[in-house]
Amino acid sequence: MVITHHGGQCFKVTLGDLTLVFDPISKKGTLPAVRFGADIALVSRNHPNMNGVEEVSFGGKEPFAITGPGEYEHSGVTVQGFLTKSEYALGKSEEEAMNTVYAVSLEGMTLVHLGALNDGMLSQEAREAIDEIDVLFVPIGGDGVLDAAKAAKLAVTLEPRIIIPMHWDGMGEPKSLEAYLKEEGGSAEKVDKLTLKKKDAAEKDGAIIVITP
Questions:
Q1: Cα–Cα distance between 6 and 191 in angstroms, integer?
Q2: Nearest to residue 136, comparing CAs of 88, 104, 108?
Q3: What is the pLDDT of residues 60-96, one digit of tens each?
Q4: In contact, 96 and 86? CB cutoff 8 Å
Q5: Is this model's pTM higher than 0.85 or not?
Q6: Nearest-5° angle of CA 20, CA 22, CA 23?
Q7: Domain ranges of the chain
Q8: Which end of the chain has a smaller Cβ tally under 10 Å, C or N?
Q9: pLDDT tens for residues 104-127?
Q10: CB 110 within 8 A of CB 79
Q11: Looking at domain 2-211, does it have CATH number 3.90.1150.10?
Q12: Which residues, 6+ apart, have CB-to-CB distance to 165 below 8 Å?
């Protein structure tokens, strides 16, 4: 599979002819909108920076949209969504918003995207359902989601093979990526795309990979 970063919390995962996208950016968002076709679109938080399903209806592809908790299966991909909380971009009368953490199984690997999570612990249901995590997408920007310290602490408890920080490009607090890397000891691999096979992931142990948009 190939993973690319499209700003904010948006990541495209391609596997042969299949394209999956996490948190596609809408035209109504504050970040540059995405424009490509996807077979599966997962939305963690109903906000224009994360809910641009229409923007990935392109090139003959009409995405299967997943916008909340539950169990799903499409095109051989299994998805579990778990209800969590976010404080990202709350309205005036809101104290918290719904966020969905997704666990996606494909090509023998498990990808977990935490969305706009601001709770430093996952629910017991999520912890029991999610087994070994090959790739963990973790928000690190603060400002309504996990900050660098909470993100680092949660990542340690989840024991993923690969950690991909998000919510630092175009959103989040200034220099949040630097703060996160400092929390994690300063070492990270930076790439413009991540090409990954199961055997590659199996050799990793908490490796931090920054995918630049």
A1: 13
A2: 104
A3: 899 999 999 999 999 999 999 999 999 999 988 899 9
A4: yes
A5: yes
A6: 140
A7: 2-211
A8: C
A9: 999 999 999 999 999 998 989 999
A10: no
A11: no
A12: 138, 139, 140, 151, 177, 180, 208, 210
